[in-house]
Amino acid sequence: MAFALLSRQTNINFAGFRRVAYAISALFIAVGIFAIILNGGLRYGVDFAGGAMVQIQFERPIADEQVKTALGSVALPGLTVQQVGTEDRDYLLRFSLTGVENLDLRDQVSSALKSSIPDNPSSIQRLETVGPKVGNDLRNMAIEALFYAVLLITVYISGRFEHSWFIAAAMAIVLYAAVYGA
Q1: Which long-range contacts (CB under 8 A, 24 or more apart) does 133-142 make?
Q2: CA 117, 109, 95, 52 torsion: positive or negative?
Q3: Around 159, how many Cα atoms within 13 Å sit in the side-chain half-sphere?
Q4: Does the chain have fewer CB atoms within 10 Å around its N or its C terminus?
Q5: In this predicted model, what pLDDT tens digit does every residue of 98-157 receive, in sequence order?
Q6: Residue 70: which residues within 8 A CB-CB, separation 6 or more?
Q7: By the 8 A CB rule, do 60 and 89 touch?
Q8: Contact 72, 78 (CB under 8 A)
């Protein structure tokens, strides 16, 4: 006797539910587009927009808000403080660059933390910066990779199941025009 998840009499009309599936998909797409517009567009991380990422470690646990308040005296636009690990000692700071150099940035963050939190010494574990030009290049390469991935998936599905290469070519041209504004 064979193990079967579905009995042989099971008859699910998947094609009959396609309009409901289309409506649900359209709803999710519309909600996603609305959320992007409501939030003022996509928010790129440090890698794609340019900026700095500093990982700091304290000797003893400290609250997130205390770290953010301590860095209030330093001009760090778009500062986000994120806890790393489980001991409340390691934090990741992300912010946009304002033209300060890495050495100056390291000194500014260290001195602000020492002056605001003198009883809990901290050390900078790592400091990474990405310029806006590099971030723009990475963003363009990511969009291009996405374009080619969608193109190849579309061509494969079209050729494998429908043999309608013209539709795949038309979709690729539309996607290319949408991405590169041609």
Answers
A1: 133/50, 134/50, 135/44, 135/46, 135/47, 135/48, 135/49, 135/50, 135/51, 136/50, 138/47, 138/48, 139/44, 139/48, 139/49, 142/48
A2: negative
A3: 7
A4: N
A5: 555 555 778 888 888 888 888 888 888 888 877 777 777 887 888 889 998 988 888 777
A6: 112, 113, 116, 117
A7: yes
A8: no
Edge-to-edge, what's the strand order for the sheet holding 90-95? Answer: 80-84, 90-95, 51-58, 122-130
**Six-digit token pair at 127?**
């400091």
How many CB atoms neighbour CB 70 within 10 A?
Answer: 20
Q: Measuring CA to CA, which residue among 155, 149, 128, 121 is closest to residue 53?
A: 128
Q: How far apart are CA 122 and CA 101, in angstroms?
A: 21
Of 46, 30, 28, 50, whose CA–CA distance to 38 is shortest? 30
Residue 145: both structure tokens together? 């990779």
